[in-house]
Amino acid sequence: MHSKRNIDYRNGSQSICKNAQFNRTMPAATDNGCNSALRYDRAARQARLDSNVATLYHGTSVANAALIESSGKFLRGVNGTSGGGIYLTSSKDVARSYAGYGGVIFECKVRLGAVETVGVPGKPLGFTTLVNRKKDSFQQASNIWVVYNYDQVKIVRRV
């Protein structure tokens, strides 16, 4: 049995799922509550994340950049080739193409952790699937990574 407390991500809070079986508090896998399919050791996840940190870039619109800077968090997008996630690249030029004319590029420290490189086309992995596989991010292409949780991305500066 587990209890759940849901708070809208857009107001700067997070949903919390307390799982009595594992006695851990964890970020909710979905915005609508506790997912009983999600089972992981939080300390092991943190160790994985800290073991693989990269400098990557994120391109976005001026309006989205203002939201990111005011909240201090990157929130998952609604869609994308690999599902609703936070997309980052090792290439400033690729980030610039996503930012569009007049957009903003952020240099970020990204806690990639254990990286999944195998996906099924048209079937996004998502946070729950990755965590259950003991993975933390997805490498979509040679220079594009997707993470699904804001605790993995910190802004270093605007480029």
Layout of strands and helices, then pairs:
Layout: E1 2-5, E2 16-19, E3 24-27, H1 42-51, E4 53-60, H2 62-71, E5 86-89, H3 92-99, E6 104-111, E7 115-116, H4 126-132, E8 137-141, E9 144-147, E10 153-158
What do these coordinates show?
There is one protein chain. This protein has 159 residues and is α+β, with helices and mostly antiparallel strands. It folds into two domains: 2-39, no CATH class; 45-158, Phosphoenolpyruvate Carboxykinase, domain 3 (Alpha-Beta Complex). The chain contains four helices and ten strands; from the N terminus they run βββαβαβαββαβββ. The protein has helices at 42-51, 62-71, 92-99, 126-132, and strands spanning 2-5, 16-19, 24-27, 53-60, 86-89, 104-111, 115-116, 137-141, 144-147, 153-158. The strands form three sheets. The protein has a four-stranded mixed sheet. The radius of gyration is 16 Å and the shape is globular. The termini are far apart.
